[in-house]
Amino acid sequence: MENHIETNFRGIQKILDSCIAHDYKTKVDALFLKREYLTQAQLKDYLRQEIFRVTENIVAIQQKYRVVRNIVLDMDIPDFLWESGYFEDLNSDERKKYIGFRCSDFDMDAYLHEPSCYDGRLPYLSIIVNLVVLSKYLRYLQEQESNYHTDAVAIQEQALPKEKEESADTNPTKIVGKSNPFKSTLKANEIKLLTDCVNEANMFTTTVSAKILTDFFNCKLNGVLKVNNTRLLAYLMMQLSCYNYIVYEWQSVIANNKLILKKIKGEPLTRTDLSSATDQAKNIYPKGYEIIDKYIKQLKKG
């Protein structure tokens, strides 16, 4: 009997994981889209407001449904529904419903249409999903706010070095070693290959030449490129970094040198924008990733 209960709970856990992944992706995607329309000042305020709002919702759920309170502490554990002791916190009727539920009966489309539709057969299902999604989303918001502050500090720190460089024009040797922040090892034929890659993938709003891409990796661009898909850009740069064609800190290089502009607002991409896009690209491959994979495979062949 114990094995049957545990097996059924682990089956229900898979259902939960799918619901959580869908709802979490929806929230993060929505935030990512909003970023395109917000100025940096507006984004700062929005992130702060979202953090307070989400925190209040999490606390309200925990106060109203005490049975799910401990799940937040264990939500990062695989099979947290079973391992958290949630089963022991249910009353006898609720336990029977979980034991008797047939996982094959679950219809994701029905859940997406009305998340609470299974709460009668699986008590608190939509509440658990909402609690875990909000908790993960809060963590993500806090990371984004932290990245925002890091960007702001970096911008302030850039002001003084710029003044020093301007006053040191008579001694240009001081900037030797900074001419290749990407530490790019890409050769001319490899740049040509990547040019075909970004054009086929429609990565930017205009067709890119090998000269433009060479200037990009030499950090000599000044707002020439507007990105069509930031997540696809992040995916490409991650791959190049992974195979040591460029530095691991490519996000900072793009942001600090203001190499690429946002499609809608025309503002330079920040490290926060790129960090967010990278997180997205890691979790769910962006549309067009297979084009990049194809060219990276050719690049590795030499």
Shape: elongated
Structural class: mainly alpha
The helix tally amounts to 14
Radius of gyration: 24 Å
How would a textbook summarize the main sheet?
2 strands, parallel
Number of domains: 2
Strand line-up of the largest beta sheet: 1-2
Mean pLDDT: 85
Q: Would you list the SSEs in sequence order as H and E?
A: HHHHHHHHHHEHHEHH
The oligomerization state is single chain
Q: How many beta strands in the DSSP annotation? A: 2
Sheet-strand content, in percent, reads under 5%
Question: In which range does the helix fraction lie?
Answer: 55-70%
- Cα(first) to Cα(last) distance is 59 Å
Q: Low-confidence segments, ≥5 residues, pLDDT <50?
A: 162-178
Can you characterise this structure?
It is a single chain. With 302 residues, the protein is mainly alpha-helical. The protein has 2 domains: 2-146, no CATH class; 188-301, no CATH class. The protein contains 14 helices and 2 strands. It has helices at residues 2-35, 40-64, 71-74, 80-83, 86-89, 92-100, 108-113, 125-167, 188-200, 210-217, 230-242, 250-256, 271-283, 289-301, and strands at residues 225-226, 260-261. A two-stranded parallel sheet has the order 1-2. The longest helix has 43 residues, at 125-167.
